[in-house]
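agent> Task received from the user: take the single chain below, predict its 3D structure, and emit structure tokens. No templates, no multimer pairing.
agent> Plan: (1) validate residues, (2) run structure prediction, (3) serialize to tokens, (4) report one or two observations.
agent> Step 1 OK, no nonstandard residues flagged.
tool_call: predict_structure(input=
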Amino acid sequence: MSEASLRQAGNFVDYTPAVALSAGQVLQLGDGRAAVATDAIAAGAQGAVQVFGTFKVAKAADIALLYGCEAWWDHSANVVTYKKVNDRDFYLGRVQADAVAAATTVEVAFNVRPRYDVDALRDGYLSVPTGTQAVGGFGFPKILGGAASLELTATSEAQCIDLLSTDKFSKDANAIIEAVFRPADAGSAAAVDFNIGIADGTSTTDADAIGTSVFAHIDGGSLNVLAESDDAVTEVAATDTTADIVAGSAVANRTTVWFDTRNPADVQIYVNAVLVLPDAVFTIAATANPLGLIAHLEKTTGTTTGRFVIDALRAWFAEQ
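)
tool_result: status=success, residues=320
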């Protein structure tokens, strides 16, 4: 007897639903994979569902999805979205073509999980604390499962803590960067600044001093998400995107920012899957330096605290 014999081809699996499925219905299998009933299947009858392939799927309204970003199935709304919440949402696959906010559908390659080209929380990062370090207090980022927490303490001094990916990439890598953070303590005073995005280096005191960068920026005491860029030739000052954070550490407090650098001379920024400041020209075109993924938290003085949890800081590249 052979050690293995083909049971069924890999694109389809047998499935017997407890409740009838209609043709085109999206579901989640017991092994966690997403599937589509390509034909109707009656309740209690065995049929076949497809687990691999690219499908055109209904998309949530008023959000954009970028080529290569994660697609999640909103189980209650029956549409694709960009993240999961505390519900029955499940991973669907990877988006296969840009879909603007007005689009009603999006193309998704089901159950595909390509490796991110740079992932600061997976591959490692550099960090240089500035301030009085103490066990259990101020110091290097604290690891919280797969997340990293940047924290300022109540010590009355200038403090800075950063997280800069060890791996870098060229401005011509056609990179899309995803940053996901929770502002657990956004700081109660203007002395606190938080920046997340890409940069060609870091600063032990002031993120604005970095030569090349594109940032989402939070001023302490403010809920506004600002955007800015600098490539040592052209600087775009921090501008209100009109998007806001919601301070806290729960799932509902996550903010997702995408930096689309496929045109280095006109970087597009999305906050929670919404394109912001489309007429602003954020640029990294003048730099020849490799770029890294960065999160940077600082205060100039005083006893105010600050704590930002970084849930994701990663990038994927493309040929064009």
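agent> Step 4: summary for the user.
The chain has two domains: 12-110, 118-316.
agent> Done.
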